[in-house]
Structures are given as structure tokens and as C-alpha cells.
Specification:
mainly alpha, globular
């Protein structure tokens, strides 16, 4: 999510340059912002940063937190959050499937 908030505008350039940790530092400062729009966007963006850094469990956690800022009260954010949570869960399953293909557990024969 983009935001017109001055501090958050800085993150657009950081993301374009792949500086996810730097952008996440700014978003993290605003995840409890009293403005629910800013808090929800920052939590969602934290999920994206975690995904880009290979931390899918943390990404799912942030996406769920973002969803709960509004729940069903904001249909657009609800849909975006739920879709992203589903994508992250599917990605996690796909990675497990790939890892299993490269390291299958031995089958015990009785």
C-alpha cells in the first residue's frame, strides 16, 4: 500500500531499490498509529517485506494483523488481506512441497 503520509512516502523509493529492511523500519514505527488506515497499510506492508525477506510465517502474521485492523468493516482491505493471506499460505505449502522433492523422507519397509 502507498500512503500520502510524509514519513511513509520515503518507503516508495526504498522498495523500488529493494531496500526492504529500511522500508520496514519506517513501517514498523506506524503499525500502531491511531489512524487505522495508516496502521493497516503499514502492517500489510510489513507482511510484504517479510515475504520478500523469506520470512513467510512472519508475513502471514503481519497480514492477519492488518486484516484485523478493520475486519469486515472495510470490504476492499478485507479482500486484499484475505487474498494475500491465502497467497502466502499457498506459497508456504509450495515451498514445503519443493523441499520434500529434494529431500524426501526415507520410506520404512516392514
Amino acid at each position: 500500500y502507498r500512503s500520502g503520509q510524509i514519513d511513509l512516502k520515503k518507503t516508495e523509493a526504498m522498495v523500488a531499490e529493494g531496500k526492504w529492511l529500511e522500508a520496514a523500519e519506517i513501517w514498523r514505527k506506524h503499525v500502531n498509529n491511531p489512524n487505522k488506515n495508516i496502521a493497516a497499510k503499514c502492517k500489510f506492508n510489513m507482511a510484504l517485506a517479510c515475504e520478500m525477506l523469506g520470512q513467510l510465517d512472519a508475513a502471514i502474521d503481519w497480514a492477519v494483523q492488518s486484516y484485523h485492523v478493520f475486519g469486515q468493516k472495510n470490504p476492499v482491505h478485507e479482500q486484499n488481506s484475505l487474498e494475500y493471506i491465502n497467497i502466502l499460505n499457498q506459497r508456504k505449502l509450495d515451498i514445503k512441497r519443493i523441499e520434500y522433492q529434494f529431500n524426501p523422507e526415507p520410506i520404512s519397509v516392514k
